[in-house]
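Colleagues,

Please find the record for the two-part complex below.
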Amino acid sequence: MTQGQGPILRVENICKMLGGKKILNSVSLSLNKGELKVLIGPSGAGKSTLLQCINFLIPPDRGQVWLEGTEVQHHRKRDLYALRQQIGMIFQDFNLFDHLNALENVSIALRKVKKMGRSAARERALAQLEQVGLGDKITLYPAELSGGQKQRVSIARALAMDPKIMLLDEPTSALDPELIGEVLSVIRDLARGGMTMILATHQIGFARTLADEVLFMEDGRIIEQGPPAELLAPNARTRSRDFCSKLDELYEENL
Amino acid sequence: MNETLFAILEALPYLLQGALVTIGIVIGAMGLGLIMGVHMAAGQVYGNRAVRRIVGLYVWFFRGVPILVLLFLFYFGLFALIGLNLSAFSASVLVLGMTTAAYQSQIFRGAIQSLPQGQLKAARALGMSDLTAIITVILPQALRLSIPGWSNEYSIILKDSALAFVLGTSEIMARSHFVASRTYHHLPLYMTAGCLYFILTWIGVQALLKLESKVRIPGYTR
């Protein structure tokens, strides 16, 4: 497979057992440059585990990951760290470094991993925070930020590393409803800017408008996949459609 | 009454020199305990089975044997066995340091384990090695959380340092005993010794409280 032609990320036959339960059952997917694939499915389907297997935060029992046509040798530490630098990850509960302010949260990996100088790292971090609309909050600590602001800092932190791919693990699930919008708008800008992403989410409306493809996961497998227009069409007889209309109903009830 | 006061005043310079020795023992022991304890805690949380087992055994041994026994054991036995000819002062620092390392490691381990797991994950996801993540993300927070426990340990080691007297280290207790047994002013001299320990404890604990509020993370409540 030649570079530039094939998919930027290819994942094949990922299996993972946790506590005697099959969390991932031979999952495969591939991602082209600039694509946004949305991962949906009920809780416990394995979405989060799948995303964390891609950058080996959870080592899969079996399966391979190819980045730009090269198979990742995750047992070699150097390869593993290099892979993770190229894959940005956003977590449901932000996972900011509590002892560092917003600016330091973004610049720390630039300094410690990319070995940038203090002032260069600071400048880059500042630019990245301005991009997510937090240029005036750089000296605040995580405990002084709202959930939406925290998640935007964490997006800036990941983007500062110039990742080739972003994995977003339910980035809005821990947010109050009125804070979801600001985070979604940052993700929308990223998608429009051509960032390659896999997004696990329950925000079906958002997924529908932006996704190139929807992957529906259940019981550790991807059971349906296709363009949102097909999979989620009002008259589509798909498991995805069922699931989404249930979510829609739930959402309306909550309103 | 005057005689008592005079006895104290006359002995005070000598006792204050002893206080310097005590301070030396405590700083040395707490410093050694800090360095060893941080490594042991990291090893116990992040190390492989062998490392965890070794740290576990170490902690079990040093927490299980009285300091008095350890002082004799090392000063008269083990140090000589391995050909180390240490002064009473160095031996006291080493034994108290190794003992407090066992306790401090558990203070740090508790602090490390109380941190949210996600931060280590986030650090790894950014491409940090485990060592870099522990040094830049985990320890700065764990050490902050450890200050109250460490302050406790300081006050314990300060008072345990009086045991160094049995090896002939000329610290506060040894000097008070020496003067008291010559002048027969037992009560005033031991009261002075007690006051010196009391003051040193107070100063150290206050300093650590200051440090705690100085390094407090803004907006952070737990």
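The radius of gyration of chain A is 18 Å.

Comments are welcome before we finalize the supplementary table.
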